[in-house]
Design brief:
The protein contains ten helices and five strands, in the order E-H-E-H-E-H-E-H-E-H-H-H-H-H-H. The chain is α/β, with parallel strands linked by helices. It has a five-stranded parallel beta sheet with strand order 2-1-3-4-5. The chain is elongated, with a radius of gyration of 20 Å.
Length: 213
C-alpha cells in the first residue's frame, strides 16, 4: 500500500490475520496502517518506524495484551486503543487505570472507527457511556485484594485446581495458610464454595495469566 503523506501511522496488533486485514482495509483510506500478528512482529515494527497509535486486540495467542504488550508500547510513546469483540469488567478496569485511551468494538463501522481514532489521536480518551457505567459499578464492588492472595487465585482458576496440600507445596506455604486464604477469598467475593468463587472470577474476566490487581 502506498503511504499517505502526513497521515497518522497506526500499528494494528491482532493475531487473526483475516480480521486484521479486514480492519486495515477499512482504515487505509484515512491512515497509514501496519499489521503485527504477535509480540515479536510488534517489536520489529516499533524498531523500524514511529507510530502514533496502536490498535490492540485483547486476545492474543502469546500473552494478554492488557499487560504484556502495553508496557512495550508505552515505552515507545505510542497511544493505545483497544479494538476487540468484547471487554470484560476486569479488562476494562485494568485498561482504564493503566493508560489505555479507549475501546472500539471490532464491529464498528468505518465512520465510527475514524471518529474514535481521530479523537484518541487528538489526546482525548474514548469510553462509551455504557462502559463508563460498567466501570463505575465494577469499581464500587471490586474487593480490596492483597497481592499475597494472587498465587492462590491462580491455582483456583487453573483447569484442574490442585488440593490445598499441593498448593501449599507449590507456594511454600502451610496447608492451614492456604485454607485461611481461600476462606478470606470466599468472603471477599461472596462465594459459597471454591467452584462459585472460580466461576465469579472467570465471569469478571480473570484467567491464570490475567489476575486481579
Amino acid at each position: 500500500m502506498v503511504p499517505i503523506d502526513n497521515a497518522p501511522n497506526l500499528l494494528l496488533v491482532d493475531d487473526h490475520k483475516l480480521v486484521a486485514t479486514g480492519l486495515s482495509m477499512l482504515l487505509v483510506k484515512h491512515f497509514n496502517v501496519t499489521i503485527a500478528c504477535n509480540l515479536l512482529e510488534m517489536q520489529a515494527c516499533l524498531a523500524q518506524q514511529k507510530f502514533d497509535l496502536a490498535l490492540l486486540d485483547l486476545k492474543m495467542s502469546d500473552g494478554h495484551p492488557c499487560r504484556h504488550y502495553r508496557e512495550v508500547l508505552k515505552k515507545e510513546g505510542v497511544l493505545i486503543l483497544i479494538v476487540a469483540a468484547t471487554m470484560t469488567d476486569a479488562e476494562l478496569f485494568d485498561c482504564f487505570h493503566k493508560g489505555v485511551y479507549g475501546y472500539a468494538p471490532k464491529d464498528s463501522t468505518e465512520k465510527e472507527f475514524v471518529h474514535i481514532i481521530s479523537r484518541v489521536l487528538a489526546g482525548e480518551d474514548y469510553w462509551s457511556p455504557k462502559l463508563r457505567q460498567q466501570l463505575k459499578t465494577f469499581s464500587e464492588n471490586k474487593p480490596d485484594l492483597q497481592k499475597r492472595f494472587l498465587p492462590i487465585i491462580k491455582h483456583l482458576l487453573a483447569p484442574k485446581p490442585l488440593p490445598d496440600l499441593e498448593i501449599a507445596k507449590a507456594e511454600h506455604l502451610s496447608v492451614r495458610t492456604v485454607g485461611n486464604y481461600v476462606h478470606i477469598l470466599l468472603d471477599l467475593y461472596d462465594a459459597k464454595d471454591r467452584y462459585e468463587l472460580s466461576h465469579k472470577l472467570s465471569q469478571m474476566g480473570y484467567t491464570p495469566s490475567f489476575l486481579p490487581e
